[in-house]
Amino acid sequence: MTEPVLSVRNLTVEFPTRRGTLTAIDNISFDIAPGEVLGVVGESGAGKSMTSAAVIGLIEPPGRIAGGEIKLNGKRIDNLSEKETRKIRGKKIGVIFQDPLTSLNPLYRVSQQLIETIRTHLPLSEADARKRAISLLDEVGIPAAARRIDDYPHQFSGGMRQRVVIALALCAEPDLVIADEPTTALDVSVQAQIIEVMKKLCAERGAAIMLITHDMGVIAETADRVAVMYAGRIAEIGPVRDVIKDAKHPYTSGLMGSIPSLTSDLERLVQIPGSMPRLSAIPKGCAFNPRCPQVFDRCRVERPDPLDVGDRKVACWLYDDRKEQAA
Amino acid sequence: MSAPLLEVRNLSRRFDVSKPWLNRVIERTDKVYLKAVDNVSFSINKGETLALVGESGSGKSTIARLIVGLLDPSEGEILFEGKSLSAGLQGAEARRLRRKFQMIFQDPFASLNARWRVSDIIAEPLKVFERGLSSLDRRRRVGELLELVGMSAEDGIKFPHQFSGGQRQRIAIARALASKPEFIVCDEPTSALDVSVQAQILNLMKDLQNEFGLTYLFISHDLSVVRHMANRIGVLYLGRLAEVAESKTLFLQPKHPYTRMLLDAVPDLEMTGRKRKRVEGEIPNPIDPPSGCAFHPRCPFIFDRCKAEIPALLENGISQTACHAVEERRI
Amino acid sequence: MSAQDNLTAPTAAPVAPKPPSRLYRIWDSDVFYSFRRSPVTIVAAIVTVTMLLAALFAPWIAPYNPFNPASLNLMDGFTPPMTESMMGNFFVLGSDHQGRDVLSTILYGSRVSIFVGLSATLFAMTLGVSLGLAAGYLGGTTDSVIMRIADIQLSFPAILIALLIFGVARGIIPPSRQESMAIYVLIVAIGLSNWAQFARTVRGATMVERQKDYVSAARIMGVHPLAILIRHVLPNVTGPVLVIGTIGLALAIIEEATLSFLGVGVPPTQPSLGTLIRIGQQFLFSGEWWILLFPAITLVMLALAVNLLGDWLRDALNPRLR
Questions:
Q1: Domain A6-92+174-326's class?
Q2: Which residue spans traverse the membrane (chain C) (predicted)?
Q3: pLDDT in tens, B255-287
Q4: Beta-carbon separation of B283 and A261 below 8 A
Q5: What is the CATH number of the domain that holds C258?
Q6: What is the ipTM of this complex?
Q7: Sheet holding B49-53, edge to edge
Q8: How many CB atoms lie within 10 A of CB C160?
Q9: Shortest Cα–Cα distance, B105 to chain C (Å)
């Protein structure tokens, strides 16, 4: 097997507060292979954005990585200095945020921002960098790129702005693109276009994508594999079709059932009772146990580690062979 | 068929988005208006759910605010039980009509006063509409309402910030139900919530509808939610109705090119691998909408008439569409 | 499954602990946490409270009654601090030219200063908050008129406006009543010169709150606009008002002192800290420094302590800085 682009092992992120330390990410591990699209899905508070912040080294203090390691192309990146992290963030890892305006500086022309980023990471002349920027804008689908490159960010519509951000994220030919809710702020019709552009360009360049979203539909459209997060842990990770069509973890199946369908008629939706626990009150054992319809004694005491089920991993005692003995 | 509960006739609403007077004089520019809602007509029968879907700038939230009286229409009228709401209602008559309609808002963090206890929030409509109620009866009613929406009566003494988004939306629903309304305008009631919580709230809203015979106007941008909730659906594009159809018809036989495009844009969660057309273009600036049919720059079926003439909402056999191509049976 | 399944929300702790007492909840709140964590604020609070109490109980704790002519003796005049006068009276902070105990005059003087400061701030707050609420909620012409007046007023120094109002009042009130009315005129003058800050802040906060859906919900029910303003909007704009109120209190105390120093404030029979400073500065160069220094230190400490409390309150109530 080829070496993964990104390899996260036993990552733990903690937030010390005056009422004790909160664990936002609790011992998670996953890999992303070259050219692969990994979807990270979860509801608010699941820790999905914190995971991406950990990878790009942007955890807001007082939060900190308390354990585990993050490797990019086999090299550890979680213990680098601020300066080295910043270098990697532009060159090796491209980032696309939900709000395009957080990635674009409103005071500079799009051309200035693109050319500067390109020249920071690649040994190109001003003119060559500009040529490259125009061809990138053209590729992300901005009409009349040569003319529009000198516009300011506010002169673009929401969808076009997100295209510019994609161009910015890709301009140094990164190995990994992290897209954190890239389409959440956009209308449905524009969302489809952005997903398509992002997917196509990364595939052409062989860049892997870590796509963070709360929208299962976007995952189904885009991802090869999906990690379902719950209360700072990965509940289930595996090929996207398997997870969506045949969820193993009770949380995943509940989540899938609660999405209204466009094709079938149900009077009532499947509902998971209650809501995601707060970080300050994560239940003992499996974090999902108070809401789980299939809960048994072991779930209330012992925390399940991800278990191999076919070609996916599921953190649920239902799939432990020793289940009977334990129960 | 009986008369509709709510009828909206040729409703329009313009917003003045001009620069301040002094700037206009110096820069020699005219007043600029944004037509958020343009000549929209529809009706809702008792006990049904009509959904309005649209993307940003479609005017769906403006219609909601016009109906509940938060905004005044520029033109057209709104009739509730056959009585016009636009003609300045006064006193007892106004109160009698007002208690019959309520609204549920999108953001459960902004729709509850953070400084009030939950019981006071839910009791507010009771204080307005049932002045004779003793304080004990009022407390009892608040307790019943909380239980009705799946919370406990003891939650009344807490403040909104002690609850999650889903629980707050339940509180907002309890407040809306307090005055025993017949008609509830729901403005994106679940779009601020997570999917698993959204399912809880949608189920609750359906249960309450069945129990109390409520009529909903359901505003949303999410087609799958709309399909789940609505009997009939109106599709809005730039302030005008593009298509109105029975829920099933709309999804099985979408007529208007915009509806088709919208349906094609929805991610394919079932992974059926259905063939989909690429979505073209973006929503134009509503201050300066395209001539004729507002959708014509993005429409794959465009012909000369579309650029010149605004299409009217016409019956086409299975639904109502505002499209020249459908009218001339080109598509 | 039904909607009622959600009665047991796992968000709560598994075992419900006994609800903590109200006093403990206040102590444990974020605002008080930031209070406990800031030594400067604790000192400022102690200074403020001590001075307030001292002023309040001045008649009981002051060693002498400095305004009882019967007990004054000119022979006690100009006694330096910590010494006994020729008459055998002991003065901790010395005595002034009339033989009044400086410590006692300060205690009585801060009483006047704090009373004027508090009343003027309350007056400014009431006026400013009402006008700000009206401007922010009604908008349009009302808003323009109120805010233009506020803008004009803010472009002049507050002291100038207070002087102006004071002068006008002098002209209206008959001379026989001027002395007894002086303190109220002072309160109105300082109050009127400070309302604009409150109005401006409250207007901004009101405009934000007015857009929120809880106000829409009340409007749909047909709740009277005045009731919406007082019961819904007002409680949500109190945070910034409290902050400006505290800082405004410090400003009002200084403003009163300035006016009294200029001789247009309280009558000499009821000296405030400002009056004491004015009296004291006449003797500074003749060597009797204590008559000026101690009232001045008191004024600075009072204003500084109140101001520091205001700063802390601003930071503690600002969720972004928390």
A1: alpha beta
A2: 42-62, 112-138, 150-169, 181-202, 233-254, 289-313
A3: 999 999 998 888 877 766 666 777 778 888 888
A4: no
A5: 1.10.3720.10
A6: 0.88
A7: B101-104, B183-187, B215-220, B49-53, B232-237, B240-246, B320-321, B314-315
A8: 10
A9: 7
